[in-house]
Structure formats: C-alpha cells, structure tokens
Amino acid sequence: MEKSIEVHNLTVSYHSKPVLWDVDFELPKGKIIGVVGPNGSGKTTMLKTVMGLMKPDSGYTEIFGQPLDKVRERVSYVPQRESVDWDFPADVMDVVLMDATARTTYSNASRKKTVASLLRRSKK
C-alpha cells in the first residue's frame, strides 16, 4: 500500500503537558479520509504537527514517504475557523486558488484549469 501520510510514535505537548502520545497511523494514497472525534481530543493538534506548525516531543511524520520539508510544495493546510462569513464571495475554486497563487508562477487560467481538474478528480 502506497501511503500519503505516516505518523509514528508521535507525542505532542502544550506547556509540558502531553495532549497526544505515541500516536501511530498510516493513510493510504488516493483516499479521502475524515478525522473525527470530540472537541479537545487532539485532531487539530495532530494535523498542525503533521504540517510542521507544531514541533513534536517525539516521533516523526512523513508525507509521500518523505519528511515534510522535501514535499512542502505538494501539501496545503486550511486552518479551522470558528465562524464563517457567509457573505464572503468565495467558492471552493477560489479558496484553492488562494494557495495555488502563492505557490506558482503559472498564469491564472492555467491554475484554474489545474484546480478544476483536481476538483473533478476529488468527486469520483
């Protein structure tokens, strides 16, 4: 099984208090995965650590079989927000393009075509 994300022996603390400890999992490549659990169970902490936004106390993560630094251009993270401005005129394409614009030098038309292709693939 090809893996998109691997997490091994991950322990993360806030102010010396462990909130995740000895977490191990592997996510298969090409699958849509949901992370569910009650508030405060460590979902966001785990994702932030995988994305390199938090430093683990121990353990390691790999994305596509490599450390995040080697594949950062292939990975995006949209942080959780408590409120949504429903009047903000953006759809999924616009939000994805926000990150794509920062990462590429391609033309706007080229980015839109690529993002549209990816969104179609995600619906299958």
Low-confidence stretches: none
Just name the CATH architecture of the largest domain. 3-Layer(aba) Sandwich
Q: What distance separates the N and C termini?
A: 20 Å
Helix count equals 4
Biggest sheet features = 3 strands, antiparallel
| Category from helices, strands and their pairing | alpha+beta
**CATH homolog superfamily of the largest domain:** P-loop containing nucleotide triphosphate hydrolases
Shape, per Cα inertia axes: globular
CATH topology of the largest domain: Rossmann fold
Strand content: 15-25%
Count of folded domains: 2
What is the residue-mean pLDDT, rounded to a whole number? 83
The helix content is: 25-40%
In short:
This protein is an alpha+beta fold. The protein is 31% helix and 24% strand. It has two domains: 72 residues, P-loop containing nucleotide triphosphate hydrolases (Rossmann fold), CATH 3.40.50; 31 residues, no CATH class.
Layout of secondary structure:
Blueprint: E1 3-14, E2 17-28, H1 43-50, E3 58-63, H2 68-71, H3 92-103, H4 108-122
Antiparallel strand pairs: 1-2, 1-3
Helix pairs in contact: 3-4
Written description of the protein model:
- The chain folds into 2 domains: 3-74, 3-Layer(aba) Sandwich (Rossmann fold), CATH 3.40.50.300; 92-122, no CATH class.
- Helices cover 31% and strands 24% of the residues.
- Strand 1 (3-14) and strand 2 (17-28) form a beta hairpin.
- The longest helix has 15 residues, at 108-122.
- Helix 3 crosses helix 4.
- The mean pLDDT is 83.
- With 124 residues, the chain is of the alpha+beta class.
- The chain has helices spanning 43-50, 68-71, 92-103, 108-122; strands at residues 3-14, 17-28, 58-63.
- The chain is globular, with a radius of gyration of 17 Å.
- The protein has a 3-stranded antiparallel beta sheet, with helices on one face.
